[in-house]
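@channel anyone free to eyeball this complex?
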Amino acid sequence: MMKRADIRAFLEAISGGNANPRTELDYATPYQLLVAVVLSAQATDVSVNRVTRTLFADAPTPQAMVALGEAAIAQRIKSIGLWQAKAKNVAMLSHLLLERHGGEVPGDRAALEALPGVGRKTANVVLNEVFGQPAMAVDTHIFRLGNRTGLAPGSTPRAVEDALLKRIPKDMLKPAHLWLILHGRYVCKARTPECWRCPGAAYCTYGEKTIKA
DNA sequence: ATCCCGAGGG
DNA sequence: CCCTCTGGAT
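replying in thread with the prediction:
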């Protein structure tokens, strides 16, 4: 019998009844969240968290970040990949926030994506987590989930995003973002998915196709 | 060898 | 669609 991907039931199952998930990537201010996500490209959450701890201790605001300067920023993030481009982006992005937005993180997509280092995914993280807008940031974890669960099989990140937006109840959209990322990070892992401890297995066919019991 | 809360460019 | 940028973890 074919299981049907029920996104609501799936989300309720993997959420563990936690309506307000908080993670190590729960930053103090919208600015720090934005910078952290810009730094997160092709880097693990743990490594990003490690460098942002020292970076934000010295430069918690865009003013302080501009004062710190690109070279000093680079020196503090060299343990993660792509640090050259990221240091340049964070310095310029901070400058532009001051110049264009009074030092505040803008709440509209066009303004966000006009910042260096900020693409659709990063803009969606800010729109979802900071402004509570109907946006889903499809990172590598959520993209993988979208394909494995049959929500948007063999599709593009944009198609996964649209499918999630269409099918996730509005009041679940914000917590769902973190639920899905954490689930992809720790359970529905890229190399060794642990279907046997997935609470959403009843709404997913991936385990049946890959793990023959 | 593969992957990580991607972006930018061809 | 493709490619490059990059270090650390597994």
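from a first look: Chain A has two domains: 7-21+135-210, 30-129.
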